[in-house]
Structures are given as C-alpha cells and as structure tokens.
Design brief:
The chain is mainly α. It has one domain (10-66). It is 76% helix and 0% strand. It has two helices and no strands. The longest helix is centred in the C-terminal third of the chain and has 39 residues, at 28-66.
Length: 67
C-alpha cells in the first residue's frame, strides 16, 4: 500500500473528524480512500468538463482582446 501525506484546510479536516466521530468511517484514512474512489469513479469527467469550459472561456477572452 502507498502512503500519502497531505495538508488540509482546517474546516475540511474538522468535517472529516466529525464524520469519523459519527461512526460513518473508522478513521480519516478510510474516509480519504472512499472520497478518492468516489472522485475517480464519478468526478473525473465533471472535472475534465470544468477545465475544458475554463479553457474555452480563456480562449474567447484572448480572442476578444486581439480584435
């Protein structure tokens, strides 16, 4: 298994701790693994679409500036 270390904003860390305290997850590691699985399964396409839309908006702004 690979170990991953990351820094989280305090509000997000607190949300994770509350979810663990409620018994939704055994620990924050389990919660993080579940969130990554969910993101990779469902969120990937939405994120790609979001980035593509941002790229299109940038291209339109640049095209308008060149006129």
């Amino acid at each position: 298994m690979k170990t991953l270390e990351l820094e989280l904003p305090e509000p997000l860390a607190a949300q994770m701790d509350r979810a663990v305290a409620k018994g939704v997850f055994r620990d924050t590691g389990e919660l993080a693994r579940a969130a990554l699985r969910e993101f990779l399964a469902r969120g990937r396409l939405a994120l790609m679409e979001h980035h593509q839309l941002d790229d299109i908006k940038t291209a339109v702004r640049e095209a308008k500036r060149k006129k």
